[in-house]
Task: inverse folding
């Protein structure tokens, strides 16, 4: 990508190995990502502490965590399209083209992998909760919130696969979230599994759910690492070819 010269007093900023003209919304995106990621990490730590001290899991914390993640990813869906370099190619971001890419294009393979991992993880977790002390109402609400959260996350993955500009910082924050959830899920399951009087079926289903969730987080982490390093190339293309812009 050719480096643009500063105009109207604007300075060039670095985003990974790329350079762009300063854009005020970059700073806005940074703070939205930083604040929401920090809030999620604090909620994870709060839940781990509560679960370590009491028997029942505080599902209100999960609901808050899903809500924060949903807000961040909805913001990214809006933000990625209005990045100046992206906004200059409206045909590339046409809804009909993106839908076709998601269901029949190369991106459909990645989205299928993520969807299967998410479906297995959430379903097994719901079955595990049915063997625990959770009420049916709270289980259904959490199932819906978690599924919605994953759908929006996968939409962000789809949008970032199609993007090529100012993605480095976004990718690094998204990676931080994936690592935080990996650590959180493992620690939380260790705490829950080592508690006394835990139903055996509950334990088995939670472990199976964790395995699927770890697979999902690792796929997302690898994707965001690739787009941080090679934003102008396609992750889903077998040869990682350069993006074809419309």
Result:
């Amino acid at each position: 990508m050719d480096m643009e010269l500063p105009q109207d007093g604007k300075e060039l900023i670095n985003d990974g190995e790329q350079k762009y003209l300063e854009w005020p919304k970059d700073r806005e995106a940074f703070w939205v990502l930083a604040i929401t990621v920090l809030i999620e990490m604090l909620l994870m730590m709060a839940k781990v502490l509560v679960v370590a001290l009491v028997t029942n899991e505080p599902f209100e914390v999960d609901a808050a965590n899903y809500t924060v993640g949903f807000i961040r990813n909805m913001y990214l869906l809006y933000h990625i399209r209005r990045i100046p370099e992206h906004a200059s190619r409206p045909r590339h971001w046409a809804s009909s083209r993106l839908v076709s890419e998601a269901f029949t294009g190369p991106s459909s393979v990645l989205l299928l992998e993520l969807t299967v991992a998410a479906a297995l993880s959430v379903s097994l977790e719901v079955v595990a909760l049915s063997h625990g002390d959770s009420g049916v109402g709270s289980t259904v609400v959490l199932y819906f919130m978690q599924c919605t959260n994953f759908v929006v996350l996968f939409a962000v993955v789809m949008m970032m696969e199609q993007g090529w500009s100012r993605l480095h910082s976004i990718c690094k924050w998204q990676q931080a979230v994936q690592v935080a959830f990996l650590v959180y899920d493992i620690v939380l399951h260790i705490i829950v599994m080592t508690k006394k009087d835990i139903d055996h079926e509950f334990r088995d289903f939670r472990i199976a759910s964790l395995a699927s969730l770890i697979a999902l987080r690792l796929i997302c982490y690898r994707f965001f690492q690739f787009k941080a390093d090679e934003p102008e190339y396609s992750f889903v293309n077998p040869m990682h070819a350069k993006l074809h812009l419309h």
Remarks:
- The longest helix spans residues 24-53.
- The helical segments are 24-53, 59-82, 84-87, 95-103, 107-130, 136-162, 168-193, 200-229.
